[in-house]
Amino acid sequence: MHEARLAPDPAPSSAAIAVRSLQGNEHARWDAFVDTCPDATFFHRAGWQTIMEQGFHHDSHFLYAEQDGHIAGVLPLAHLRSRMFGSALVSLPFCVYGGIACGSSSVRQALDSAALALARRLGVGHLEYRWRELPEDADSSWLHKPLYATFRRPLHPDAEQNLLAIPRKQRAVVRKAMAAGLHSAIDYDLKHFYPIYAASVHRLGTPVFARRHFALLRTVFGKACEILTVYHGQQAQASVLLFYFRDEVLPYYGGGSVLARSTGANDFMYWEAMRRACARGYRLFDFGRSKLGTGAYDFKKNWGFTPQPLPYVYQLVRAKALPEVNPLNPKYALFIRAWRRLPLPLANLLGPHIVRQLG
After folding, report:
1. How far is residue 280's CA from residue 157's CA, in Å, rounded to a whole number?
2. Would you tell me how many other CB atoms lie within 10 Å of the CB of residue 142?
3. How far apart are CA 90 and CA 130, in angstroms?
4. How many CB atoms lie under 10 A from the CB of residue 123?
5. CA–CA dist 348, 198 (Å, integer)
6. pTM above threshold 0.85
7. Residues 107 and 122 in one domain
8. CATH number for the domain harbouring residue 72
9. 235-292 residue pLDDT tens
10. For the range 164-172, what are the long-range contacts, defined as Cβ-Cβ under 8 Å and sequence gap of 24 or more?
11. Is residue 120 domain-shared with residue 183, that is, in the same domain?
12. CA 264 to chain centre
């Protein structure tokens, strides 16, 4: 089920803590720690350094704390520079989770101090940690802005029990899609996924990632990154790119065609992701984050998932106020409406140049 990893470094002692920058030949060592650290997520993996640098051309600053020659904590950071939205040091852009993964408050403080010093040296507007769960001893001086929730739930080993856990109305949509003959398959290229995804986000008024972004994800993360597509006959109607981490599955980038709403292909797609993961021994379904008060937020609640607020935190460095870079900001409403009116080929051409600045 999982990729082979090096044995993790032994537990750290009370020795002095040194903070270092991740080097290209240390990715396996970093990932060995991430694989066993309870605080770590898929987005703490070293491969994101490659995504940040080669995919988005952002400088990365992946910091780790070392004790007795062993990794004791990690903090992946990337430096976003945008003419439109300013400069920020973020853990981690384009990812739903981030922050420090470690096993002790002393290691967390060492990495935190190093990150703040780096943020000041770079002269960024703010430093941002995308915690999934806020540490009990987190510094209360950090600013917090409620904006997102995540949706996570254990998978039952029996697929039928997972189906029955879906509320009745939503479960009926899945059963209807089954009865209509929809089926899923694992795709090994972007042929179906990218056009469906690009058209889907265009209808939402959101700039799309470049096709090469998804190709790079597949290359960097290998078997931990998979594409699942739903078909009606030979017609692809919905597709999702999945991440796998330890015993979790994360449907991360997904979209449906204009027919998907009427056929239930979107619901069936997530059910198939759940069913297939269960069959392969995964034990937790991470439905990902959604903005509060949005349709995506309601959709996941309708699946029976309980929202868990995400405690993203910020330290102002040169900025005077927290950024408001999100589609719920009224100032972006005109842009969203205009983007929807762009011809799809033009939106696909321009989108990657804009989205890399958003993070």
Report:
1. 10
2. 18
3. 8
4. 10
5. 7
6. yes
7. yes
8. 3.40.630.30
9. 999 999 999 999 999 999 999 999 998 999 999 999 999 999 999 999 999 999 999 9
10. 165/304, 166/271, 166/303, 166/304, 167/302, 167/303, 167/304, 169/302, 170/267, 170/302, 170/303, 170/304
11. no
12. 24
